[in-house]
Amino acid sequence: MGAQQALLAPSTRSQLALSQPLLAQLNFKAPKHPTSVTPTARPKLPGQECVREFRSPGMAKALVAPLIPHVARGSQLLAWVLWLQAWRVAAPCPGACVCYNEPKVTTSCPQQGLQAVPANIPAASQRVFLHGNRITYVPAASFRACRNLTILWLHSNALARIDAAAFTGLALLEQLDLSDNAQLRAVDPTTFHGLGRLHTLHLDRCGLQELGPGLFRGLAALQYLYLQDNGLQALPDDAFQDLGNLTHLFLHGNRIPSVPERAFRGLHSLDRLLLHQNRVARVHPRAFRDLGRLMTLYLFANNLSALPAEALAPLRALQYLRLNDNPWVCDCRARPLWAWLQQFRGSSSEVPCSLPPRLAGRDLKRLAATDLEGCAVAARPSRPIRDRRACRRGATGATQPLRTQLCGSGLEVQDGLSPQGPRKQSL
Prior knowledge:
- The chain is α/β, with parallel strands linked by helices.
- The protein is 17% helix and 11% strand.
- The protein has helices at 2-6, 10-18, 20-26, 57-64, 76-89, 309-312, 335-343, 389-393, 400-409; strands at 98-100, 106-108, 127-129, 137-138, 151-153, 161-162, 175-177, 200-202, 224-226, 248-250, 258-259, 272-274, 282-283, 296-298, 320-322, 328-329, 347-348, 353-355.
- A 12-stranded mixed sheet has the order 1-2-3-5-7-8-9-10-12-14-15-17, with no helix packed on it.
- Helix 4 packs across helix 5 (76-89).
- The chain is elongated and about 80 Å long.
- It is found in: Cell membrane; Cell projection; Membrane raft; Perikaryon.
């Protein structure tokens, strides 16, 4: 380009130098004969479909003329460059929005009372902020023209429906925030398909009651998944199996009643799992088997009365554990958990007992083995009751209260607690 620039007057060359960053950004290559370049032969630029066309040469001239009051005759290359610059400046911004190019091309329309996604978002946008409006619906391909989009905020709207193809074409999207849309309640399982670079997804406080099968399929780059404060009533098997890079999973504040065996299968990179403030009453012994890198586990404020130590055994990297605010029963069922807590070297909350009454309020971690009711003289681990009809028949003698309690737990009863001569009777 130096040869063409040398042919221009010094003042013209200085003006052209100011446009070099623009040329570099547009990857523009000057033709061999600049005088042959005309506005009608301009290259088709990416995203041009979202930019207002000049409807007449007069419009282009009106925009360019103030920028070049003294353009040398024949300097059509410079005119072309400045025309491109004016064309770029003239790119429309939705009426209720603010658009700017630094640090990234951004269309920002927060808290403007919008009831629909704007139709003329500039295609060059890398960030689109539409939060805090009244948008109720995201139609199919709402952002298809914006191929460079990396961040999209739609939180704090009134979304009740998102079309399954709403995010079609956003292959570069990295952050998607749909939180605080309490009327959403359900998301089509194919909504996030094709978002292979997505690393942060906010679905918290959306009124979700279930996770559809395959909802997170293909999101191999996802690292942060926010699902807290919804109405989730179950954790489906293999719901997160494609999320091998997920490090943070937030599930607190839902209505989850149990943690099944395959709920977290495939989460080999998970670092933080928050399950507190649910209704969890049971954790499968193999529920955490793939979580060898987990460092933080919150299970407080649930309905746990027991937790199998086998479930915690795979958590070799665990450093922070919270189990408080659960109705722990500190009898023989708690003995494996008690033993695991004795060897745990990380930081853990108290595990206050609810039952039996004599241990109520005491920390399970600080009890002695002999404090665990019903296990002081057991010769070997208890086995499941095979004949539950015997529990209904009842029993006689001083051990009746203990027998009744253990029948309810599904464990084999030790009939007779004297260390001199315990007599085992299977019920």
